[in-house]
Amino acid sequence: MAITAVRIDGRLIHGQVANLWTPSLGATRIMVVDDKVSQSDIEKSGLRMACPAGTKLSVIPVEKAAENILDGRYDSQKVFLVVKKPDVLLELVNKGVPITAINVGNMSQTPETKHVNKSINVTEKDIADFKVLADKGVKLTNQMVPGDKQNDFMELLKDL
Fold it and tell me: Of these residues, 11, 14, 95, 131, which one is catalytic?
């Protein structure tokens, strides 16, 4: 299986992802899956600069990610899949991508969000998407950095 880990992080590639998660996972490729970001040369350029040296990077739309993963294109690699929101992962799961666990990292605050903890804010749609993912058997956790305690994310949502 090519997917080593899956993380939701609104910042995509930044210090925690590049310097802590990627080496601790032994990831050889970071795959950013986002329809809008994959179409922006400026955003892709920024992600390339943030990607750790020696780590491959893919910035691709959802459809292409599902196709590549299901075709076994990355089977010889350790892929760290990073997205901004849960709906992308739900779409991948619905397309048959075998995602068994998701680490929910940073999700920024907006006027539409509810506060979960100091770094996670969710909309009603996010909550609904997380529930569907959990119902499909996906384990949802929250762990900001590799050394932190892993929390059951669905337990955190129960307080909302």
Answer: 14
